[in-house]
Amino acid sequence: MLDELDRALIHALHIDGRASFTHLATVLAVSPQTVSRRYDRLRDQAALRVVGLPDPQLTGHEQWLLRLTAAPETALDLAHALVRRADTSWVYLTGGGTEIVAVLETPLGTAHGHSLLLHELPPSVGLTAVSAHHLLHTYLGWRTPWRMSANTLTPRQQRMLGGRTFTGYGGTRHPDHHRQVQLSPADHALMDALRRDGRAAVAELAADTGWSPATVSRRLDHLRACAAIFFDIEIDPVLLGGSVKVLLWMAVAPAHLDEVAESLSRHDELAFVAHTTGPTNLVAHALCPDSAALYHYLTHGLGAVKAISTLETAPVLRTLKAVGTIAPPGPPDRRG
User: Fold this and answer.
1) How far apart are CA 52 and CA 210, in angstroms?
2) Which of 263, 273, 290, 310 could cross-link 251 (Cys pair, CB 3.0–4.6 Å)?
3) How far is it, in rounded angstroms, from Cα 125 to Cα 161?
4) CA–CA separation, 72 and 97 (whole Å)
5) Who contacts 317 (Cβ-Cβ below 8 Å, separation ≥6)?
6) Diameter of the chain by CA atoms?
7) Are 286 and 311 spatial neighbours (Cβ–Cβ below 8 Å)?
8) Is the CB of residue 127 less than 8 Å from the CB of residue 69?
């Protein structure tokens, strides 16, 4: 079980995933050694990982949600084929174990990137159904963490860490002065390294990019300042009260879509809310302690939102890939 200090550390890493143990210790009013021990324990026992992520809109990419159905005997093979791809994240096995849901990232303008992906999959996976949903706007998720994993620090403690990197619950939006950033090959190498380990030491990042440590620090500061990269954490949601995981596919009249999505983004049960293309134009990821809590949320939480005309629930059976690149365990964190 997580105690108050564990939860505070998780909240702090949501705000600044690269904060040093010394600074985290000051914010949390404990010793750096205590922070280091807690961080190591969370990595080992709670699957905690800090990941650096490029902002798709600001780095010239777009995201798609793919729903793929295969025969029961080949569905897991299809899921693992998607896991191995560098351009996928959040690969889920859902429903009765024959549907796979994944996020695919493609260069901006290649609207048929998901079609190309299907041609590259092994013919043996036996696809029986495919649908692709373009993620048009994210109301909750990515820069905005699940409320139950970021609800511990006081406003003062949050300010000590530089404040939150998102504008608050109800929609992730970029300031007008944030424009698309042209990335060099070394920038891509830097982002790949940070996706593997968002807390990698500057010396390690220098080895990955070919830059000097000073250049890495300057470039990373620039990419963070212009919002081209941000930091998120991965952790087992069961420890935060998310034992039951369900994807929700909803249809809402366009006139009410923004209002409904803004409202849902304030629900404690939801970790992700986004507007998509397709017959269902709103998707959400619900995390509940148990089936009874999910039933209560579906009937009383979502049931109270009259503008939702249809609702499809898809239980998540397994999470095969989260947001970061799959990588073998690395050396202990050395950011003191």
Assistant:
1) 19
2) 310
3) 47
4) 7
5) 92, 93, 94, 95, 97
6) 57
7) no
8) yes
Q: What is the CA radius of gyration of the chain?
A: 20
d(CA 76, CA 94): 11
pLDDT at 86: 84
Question: Rounded to an integer, what distance in angstroms lies between the CA atom of residue 286 and that of residue 269?
Answer: 5
Q: What stretches of the chain show up as alpha helix (H) in DSSP?
A: 4-15, 21-28, 32-46, 75-83, 113-120, 155-160, 185-196, 202-209, 213-225, 254-264, 291-296
Which residue type occupies 335?
R
Angle at 136 between CA 280 and CA 222, to 5 degrees: 150
Q: What is the DSSP letter of 122?
A: -
Nearest in space to 54 (alpha carbons), one of 132, 108, 10: 108
Q: Contact 205/220 with Cβ under 8 angstroms?
A: yes
pLDDT of residue 24: 98
Average pLDDT of each block of 10 consecutive residues along the chain (336 residues)? 95 96 98 97 94 90 92 91 89 93 85 63 77 93 90 95 53 54 91 94 96 97 93 92 97 96 96 95 97 97 95 96 58 52
Q: Is 97 left (phi over 0), alpha (psi -120 to 50) or beta?
A: left
DSSP, res 27 = H
Residue 271 near residue 177, CB atoms below 8 Å: no
**Rounded to an integer, what distance in angstroms lies between the CA atom of residue 130 and that of residue 125?**
13
Q: Which of 248, 333, 252, 253 is nearest to 297 (CA)?
A: 248
- Which two tokens mark 299? 């009937």
Give the pLDDT score at 40. 96
Q: Report which DSSP code applies to 174.
A: -
Q: Would you state the structure tokens that stand for residue 37, as one six-digit string?
A: 């021990």
The pTM score is 0.87
